[in-house]
Amino acid sequence: MTLAPPVVELRDVSRAFVAGDISVPALTDASMSVERGEYVAVIGPSGSGKSTMLNVIGLLDRPTAGSYFLEGIDTSTLSEGQRAGLRSRRIGFVFQSFHLLAHRSVIENVLLSTIYNGMPRADRLSAAETALVRVGLGHRMDFVPTKLSGGERQRVAIARALVTRPAILLADEPTGNLDTGTGGAVLGLFDELRAEGLTLVVVTHDTEVSDHADRAIHLRDGRIEVEL
Amino acid sequence: MSTPIVTDGSEAVAPARMAARDLVAEAIAGIFARPGRTFLTVLGTVLGIGALVATLGVAKTAGNQIVGRFDELAATSVVVTNERGFFGGGGDVRIQIPSDAESRLLRLNGVNGAGAMGPVDVGSALVRSVPIPDPLAQTEFQMSVYGVSPGLLSATRGVLATGRWFDAGHSERADRVAILGTGAAQRLNVTRVDQQPVVFIGEDAFVVIGILDSVRRQPELLNAVILPEGTARDVYGYTSASTVQIDVEIGAASLIAEQAAIALSPNEPSLLRVQKPPEPGDIRRDVEGDVNALFLVLGGVSLLVGAIGIANVTLVSVLERVGEIGLRRALGAARRHVAGQFLMESTAMGLVGGIIGASMGVLLVVAISAARTWTPVLDPWVPLAAPLVGALTGLVAGLYPAIRASALEPVEALRAG
Predict the structure, then answer these.
(1) In a domain, A3, yes or no
(2) At what angle do helices B20-33 and B35-74 cross, to 10 degrees?
(3) pLDDT tens, B319-351?
(4) Of A5, A45, A54, B407, whose CB neighbour count within 10 A is largest?
(5) Is A221 inside any structural domain?
(6) Do the domain assignments include residue A45?
(7) A87, A103, A116 ranked by CB distance to B34: nearest
(8) Closest Cα partner for B386 from B46, B138, B35?
(9) Which of A18, A57, A60, A93 should one mutate to test binding to chain B, selecting the residue with the greatest count of B CBs within 10 A?
(10) Cα(A197)–Cα(A37) distance, rounded to whole angstroms?
């Protein structure tokens, strides 16, 4: 019997951006891991490397040094196509600005996740409906996003992330564009999902958000400062 | 205890896949997301394809129509001359056209009428209608004089204004009679023939027995003094006709053209020049060629403008949808999926433009034909190929924007959108 590897494991990961002759480090020697079912907050002031870390974890960006294992898979050896495949099956994203397609209905926005990950066509609609019911928007399926409130839009985005049953949900300032009330509702939803066993990594500078998490990783100037 | 997770299995790290059907569905959804803009984008292609289809259709229709008109008169005329032409060499060895040309030709099946004619050399003699010169007006004229055979009137489809045409008897007896063309009659001031007016060619007098009002062929006769062949031979030593006009049945022109030279000169038919009406197919091709060349260029230019329009709008749309591109990449779309979607969208726009353009082009051809009471004619491949040309236009136009879209880095795209 082997122990399941952590969902996310960073080993001495660095990411530097090169502009001309100057190399600007955004993340330096970051080592951390997220176990299955954990709810981890990444906090720090702006420019501290939070988003860079999330992009690396989300396979949107490659580290310049160190290695990153996603569910035990060494991602540094993968091709772009394989990384895209992993994103489509194992990772769900929630963004600060929602990123919903304005001209498509709520259900179509959720279905968008399913076309890139090989889900059988017959299963897609019921999966999308289940996800929307799960986030409490079963009555809004045929609305267009522009008719929804900010909190409802973010819940559509969460449904879109959940529909493919990912191993991990990555959220980048999920409450950043919401007022306190609706933001609180989104955080309540995260708590429920965590209770159901979902692994969550949430980037935020809002301490209220990090209070919901099991633990918080503090970043400053690209380095992990304290791990609480 | 959780189950071990396979870390080296190919399934776990399979690259992203996207069904072709989903790609098409996404492209169509992208087009109909903003129908107003799509319509304006497609307009250039609609105009280009429409112009091309209408051009090809109208050219074909008009070509057929013009041939229909030509058929009536020109297709029934065959002319044989004994001119040697540019390459004949030895200009003086013209062969003679036999004096019984008319009867030789009438024996051919398909000949309705035939008549020979040729200029008569009258030296420097002038033509006048009064014996005494009037010092106050010009009464003497230089005029062409033709010796002709009796059948020429029907062969040229001539109509007499007054009087009569001469017959074989006049020619055999070499009667001193003449017919005036209407232009010649006017200048000589001869308007009626009931009092047997006389014209003088030099000192030779001829009784005018008729005035020729019009001919459908050989219009030079209308300004000439026309003498019977026998008369011309007797008075001026006229030897041979230079031209034989033949009126043939519709459809017989090519055959008669071949036979006439042999009938007139069995030994050396190649020394005669035969002018026959052009084949209908040649005319059709000529007309189509003329009309097509100009308008196809115009159609091509509008199609080019349409392609630039699609390229432009697709590029703008790529820049506007940077956020969407980033999102799709985050959801697992590979670069080729993003490129494929934009390429598919521009191709579909071109296809739609091609279909609408082809329909409008066909309608235009029908409308023009209806207005002119023509029969619309269109090659079937034109409306079938037009949408494909439109789709190809869209495909080419979408290449650059699609490459731009797929080159975007997902992190940058998400931040920008």
Answers:
(1) no
(2) 90
(3) 888 999 999 999 999 999 999 999 999 999 999
(4) A54
(5) yes
(6) yes
(7) A103
(8) B46
(9) A60
(10) 5
Which of B3, B337, B410 is the closest to A60 by Cβ?
A: B410
* Annotated domain spans of chain B: 20-69+282-416, 77-276
Chosen for mutation from A51, A94, A112 (greatest number of chain B CBs closer than 10 Å) is A112
**DSSP 3-state of B206:** strand
CATH number at residue A203: 3.40.50.300
Q: What are phi and psi of B307, to 5 degrees?
A: -65, -40
Cβ–Cβ gap B14/A73 under 8 Å: no
Residues of A in contact with B329 (CB under 8 A): 60, 84, 87
What tens digit of pLDDT does each residue of B239-294 get? 888 899 999 888 788 888 888 889 988 888 888 888 887 666 666 666 666 666 77
Could you give the CA distance from residue B303 to residue B161 in angstroms, rounded to a whole number? 58
Lookup: tokens for B220: 């030079």
Taking the Cβ of residue A113 and every Cβ of chain B, the question of whether any pair is shorter than 8 Å is answered with yes
Domain encompassing residue A179: 8-227
Using the structure block, give the residue that is written with the tokens 């010092």.
B135
Q: What angle do CA B26, B28, B31 make, to 5 degrees?
A: 110
Phi, psi of A8 (to 5 degrees): -125, 130
- Counting the structural domains of chain A, the total is 1
Query: Chain A interface, mutation test: which of B37, B324, B331, B408, most A Cβ atoms within 10 Å?
Result: B331
CA B213 – CA B207 distance, rounded (Å): 18
Q: How confident is the model at residue B3 (pLDDT cuts 50, 70, 90)?
A: very low
Tokens of B79: 């002319």
Angle of CA points A107, A111, A117, to nearest 5°:
170
User: Largest alpha-carbon pair distance within chain B?
Assistant: 142
Q: Residue A2 falls within a domain, yes or no?
A: no
* ipTM at complex level: 0.94
